[in-house]
TrEMBL record:
<dbReference type="Pfam" id="PF17765">
    <property type="entry name" value="MLTR_LBD"/>
</dbReference>
<dbReference type="GO" id="GO:0003677">
    <property type="term" value="F:DNA binding"/>
</dbReference>
<protein>
    <submittedName>
        <fullName>Helix-turn-helix domain-containing protein</fullName>
    </submittedName>
</protein>
<dbReference type="InterPro" id="IPR010982">
    <property type="entry name" value="Lambda_DNA-bd_dom_sf"/>
</dbReference>
<dbReference type="Pfam" id="PF13560">
    <property type="entry name" value="HTH_31"/>
</dbReference>
<dbReference type="InterPro" id="IPR001387">
    <property type="entry name" value="Cro/C1-type_HTH"/>
</dbReference>
<dbReference type="InterPro" id="IPR041413">
    <property type="entry name" value="MLTR_LBD"/>
</dbReference>
<feature type="domain" description="HTH cro/C1-type">
    <location>
        <begin position="41"/>
        <end position="88"/>
    </location>
</feature>
Length: 304
């Protein structure tokens, strides 16, 4: 078995096993099934029964053999394991990659990684003057910002984890390797967990992305915290929610966000932050805009 194929099988095996461990018999309505239990969560044969497949067949799936598995079986397994939308998409990505037989698929797994946003996208960013906004890729590189977005993420841009002045700052590298991240994100634990979930989901979509693989390898080597979180095989869709920052110039900002895929640029996501009107955060966001205008001349340009 090739190294790449072995890695994909391992990812599928560990993902299914960790999901199975999270579901109790009570969750699955199997309170009267079986006697003494020696496993955390469901047994393989219980998942097989719930999915309507044989125990031997499900065991084969959990060993990482997803090639040739039908969508209906994947749906049944997803239902048996109570997978959410992100987990279901990840399972289907793993199966798609297994069916590709080690070849890059059609969903952009070999697309050239963008290092900056298109001029029209930058124009859209610049038109949003009252809210922080930025564009990232699946590797969590920040590829473009507006003025407020650049100010909000100034600690990331100024971090020593940035490999050069012309390289895009990376949110995961900052979060796990720069101690300043604990000051920047009041919920540092949650921010790190989200970063790992997003990277894990991206690894399912683009398993042949060398830049992504290199980043994961770097973080795994340099951060025990990252290794532990990565081993959990958690994934997430990051579309809307709340995020808190502590900016060195204006203090705490509690913001809502909306994240939108840029359909013309596969793999890129536009994120926009807003503050509730008449709140301390709204006032501080205005102060951040003033701070950004004052410091604009001193800020390093984005890559490109």
């Amino acid at each position: 078995m090739s190294g790449a194929r072995s890695h994909r099988s391992e990812a599928a095996r560990d993902f299914l096993a960790t999901r199975r461990a999270k579901i109790t018999p009570e969750d699955a309505g199997l309170t009267a099934y079986g006697g003494n239990r020696r496993v955390t969560g469901l047994r393989r044969e219980e998942v097989a029964m719930l999915a309507g497949v044989s125990a031997d067949y499900y065991t084969r799936l959990e060993k990482g053999h997803l090639a040739g598995v039908s969508d209906s079986v994947l749906d049944a397994v997803a239902g048996a394991l109570h997978l959410d939308e992100a987990e279901r998409a990840y399972l289907f990505d793993l199966a798609r990659n297994a069916n590709a037989g080690g070849r890059p698929g059609r969903r952009g797994t070999t697309r050239r990684r963008a290092t900056q946003v298109r001029p029209t996208v930058q124009t859209v960013l610049d038109s949003m003057r009252d809210v922080p906004a930025f564009v990232r890729n699946g590797r969590l590189d920040i590829l473009g910002t507006n003025t407020l977005g650049r100010a909000l993420y100034s600690p990331v841009f100024d971090s020593p984890t940035r490999t050069s002045d012309v390289s895009p700052p990376n949110l995961a590298r900052f979060g796990f390797l720069d101690p300043a991240a604990r000051d920047c994100f009041p919920d540092h634990d949650g921010a790190c967990h989200t970063n790992v979930q997003l990277l894990r989901a991206e690894a399912g979509r683009t398993p042949h992305d060398k830049d992504l693989t290199d980043l994961i390898g770097e973080l795994s080597t340099r951060s025990e915290d990252f290794r532990t979180r990565w081993a959990a095989h958690d994934v997430r869709l990051h579309r809307t929610g709340r995020k808190s920052f502590h900016h060195p110039a204006v203090g705490r900002l509690d913001l809502s966000f909306e994240a939108m895929a840029l359909e013309a640029d596969p793999g890129l996501t536009l994120t926009v932050y807003t503050a509730e009107p008449d709140t301390a955060t709204a006032e501080r966001l205005s102060l951040l805009a003033s701070w950004a205008a004052t410091h604009a001349a001193d800020e390093a340009p984005l890559p490109g």
